[in-house]
Amino acid sequence: MWSTFFVTDEEGRTISPAGPGAVGAPVGAPGGAPPGAGALTGLMTGRTTFGGNKRRRTTSPGHTMSEAQEGKIKLAFFVAIVGVVLTVLGMGTEFWVELSPPKSYYNNQTCLTAHYGLWKGCTKTLWVSDIDPERESCGPAELPGESNCTYFKFFTTGENAVMFQKTTTKNLNVAAAMLALFSLFLMVMGAICITMSLSKEIVFFLKPASVCFILSGLLVLVTLMVFHQSVLALLASDHTVPLHHELSWSVSCIGCAGSVLIVGGILFLLLALPYSPWQRCLPQKDSSS
Q1: What is the pLDDT of residues 90-132, one digit of tens each?
Q2: What is the per-residue pLDDT across 241-251, written as a single tens digit (0 to 9) for each?
Q3: pLDDT tens digits for 39-96?
Q4: Burial class (CB within 10 angstroms; exposed 0-12, middle 13-18, buried 19+) of 187
Q5: Residue 289, CA atoms < 13 Å, CB-side half-sphere
Q6: What is the pLDDT of residue 50?
Q7: What is the distance between the terminal CA atoms of the chain, rounded to a whole angstrom?
Q8: pTM, to two decimals
Q9: Which 3 state secondary structure label does DSSP give 282?
Q10: How far apart are CA 90 and CA 118, in angstroms?
Q11: Does residue 63 sit in helix, strand or coil?
Q12: For the purposes of burial, counting CB atoms within 10 Å of the CB of 228, is it exposed (0-12), middle (13-18) or buried (19 or more)?
């Protein structure tokens, strides 16, 4: 006695098996496979997908990526994000350089110090009693005191800023600010490429992302050098007031950010290669040895 059962194919349609007299031969096609044989074979081998087609990852170079490679990309992306955060932190603060005259230049009770960054400058009045007795100049700017901060006018009206009778160089300051903004733009483009690479599982987007992050890191370092030249030009504009200058912690953030961004871009470039550079440089030993 034959038992009847039904099988559904991948599209959800019900396939009726052939009767007992047609085992091994379909209707109207002698010698062929019975109706639903493909579905039965898939059911027995476990290759059918119920409830929709399941996406499978492959490792075809340039098209899709494996789970291990996706994890490496996320790790390299985290490194790049650290560089982006350090860049934003450094560019958004005004502690790039500190200018300090001697403590006794104004009076014996208070002294004036200044610090500025890419966008604005601040002057701060400090109490001499709060300053280290071994320090000859006024500062540091982190000490408590009355502060007055203003944005530079050479971004709007084109006027140079005057600090301690010294005049800033507008061209150098504007060039440093524009380089910083362009580096941020490249960081955003690189982040978009990595996001598309992870969402679409396409390795190709790693190459433009690596170029964007490497160029952004180089531009960050160039911004630092241009800003330092602007500081030297400011000090050379007038020698009436003796000033002591030192680069502050915002510059340290920018320097670290540029290095981290370049490292992140190199990691993306290595992940985009069709082969592993470690296997090329260090060939695997024979398992028998």
Answers
A1: 999 999 999 998 887 777 788 889 999 999 999 998 888 888 8
A2: 888 889 989 99
A3: 444 444 444 444 444 444 444 444 566 788 888 889 999 999 999 999 999 999 999 9
A4: buried
A5: 3
A6: 40
A7: 62
A8: 0.71
A9: coil
A10: 10
A11: coil
A12: middle
**Per-residue buried b or exposed e for 77-108, using 16+ beta carbons within 10 Å of the residue's own CB:** bebbebbbebbeebbebbbbbbbbbebeeeee
- Alpha-carbon torsion angle 197, 202, 206, 209, nearest 10: -40
Here the tokens at position 112 are 């004036």
Q: What is the percent of the chain with per-residue pLDDT over 70, rounded to a whole number?
A: 72
The 3-state DSSP class for residue 108 equals: coil
Query: Cβ of 203: how many Cβ atoms within 10 Å?
Result: 22
Distance, in Å, from the CA atom of 158 to the CA atom of 58, rounded to the nearest integer, reads 57
Distance of alpha carbon 260 from alpha carbon 118, whole angstroms: 21
Q: Determine the Cα–Cα distance for residues 220 and 226; give it in Å rounded to an integer.
A: 10
Quick one: DSSP state of residue 113? Answer: E
Residue type, 262: I
Q: What angle do CA 209, 212, 217 make, to 5 degrees?
A: 125
Q: Please check whether residue 245 is in contact with residue 235, taking contact to mean a CB–CB distance below 8 angstroms.
A: yes
CB atoms within 10 A of CB 265: 26
Instruction: Using only the alpha carbons of the chain, give its radius of gyration.
Output: 34
**Phi and psi, residue 249, nearest 5°:** -70, -25
